[in-house]
Amino acid sequence: MTTATANGHSQNGTTDTIDLKAWRDAVAIMAQRAHDHYGPEMAGRISKARIIVLDGLVQHGQEIAYVTSETDPERSYEVTREGCDCQDAKQKAPEGMCKHRLAWMIYRGAYGIARELTQQRESAPASETSEPGRIPSEMTVDIRGKQFVTYTGLLALAQQQGLQSLDVRFIDVQAEMATAIATATFQDGRSFTECGDATPGNVNTNIKPHFARMALTRAKARALRDALNIGMCSVEELSE
Questions:
Q1: CA angle at 199 for the pair 142 and 211, rounded to the nearest 5°
Q2: 170 three-state secondary structure
Q3: What residue spans of 43-86 are helical by DSSP H?
């Protein structure tokens, strides 16, 4: 039985070093796949399952997993591919797919994705734009004496370096928060995936009624910053 942690995730008796960002991205990818498969009816359970995985509450086994309760650390639920012993799985959840079963499903899929993302990032060559001085000044803005890169600047730099596609979609949209995931793919086959979020309280007043759109922009900006190896924060990631 193994438990997921930020580094040294293990599965099937082996241990791999997986960086935290790759793990979070992989969990987001699997959560999105679950949304696509099960539809809006399961959105609430999938969101809770994603949090369960990120909080390290899944103890993975070959045929059985144990998922620790979010409210009672002394309580855990036994999960198999066929069911879970919680009341939601037995009485309410469609096809018995409670948040605990969804969490194990997300965990299993995320492990392989996170390992691939980690390997890609370790082998990716450093971009020439990794030096802050190499970012054209017209692509940055000064806010209170600190430099920030613009999304349009990131996009222009990425296109110069062979950006082939930039895909983005929502993971979840609620009244209090929207989350999104973006993948930037380049002509040489490299791809970079990142997530973004936005709330009514961390966006400019002018776009507050449409705050969910900012989650899309932030996800794209972060994916491009990863691809270009730019540590400078983007303007769009700032709260008001």
A1: 80
A2: strand
A3: 43-54
- For residues 193 and 201, what is the distance between their CA atoms, to the nearest angstrom? 25
- State the angle between helix axes of 151-160 and 211-228 in degrees (0 to 180), rounded to the nearest 10: 40
Q: Is the pTM of this model over 0.70?
A: no
Residue 84 near residue 78 (C-beta atoms within 8 A) = yes
Q: How far apart are CA 194 and CA 237, in angstroms?
A: 13
Residue linked to tokens 């449409």: 210
Show the tokens assigned to 15. Answer: 């241990």
Residue range 167-196, pLDDT digits in tens: 999 998 888 899 999 999 999 888 899 888
> First and final CA of the chain: distance in angstroms?
45
CA dist., res. 220 & res. 212, Å (int):
13
Give the C-alpha separation, 183 to 158, whole Å.
Answer: 12
pLDDT at residue 94 above 90?
A: yes
In angstroms, the CA 67 to CA 78 distance is 7
Other C-beta atoms lying within 10 Å of the C-beta of residue 80:
13
Which amino acid type is present at position 137? S
| Tokens 């222009």 found at | 156
Computed on alpha carbons and rounded to an integer, the radius of gyration of the chain in Å comes to: 19
List the beta bridge partners of residue 67. 58, 77
The closest alpha carbon to 164, from 186, 189, 146, belongs to 186
How many angstroms separate the CA atoms of 3 and 10, rounded? 8
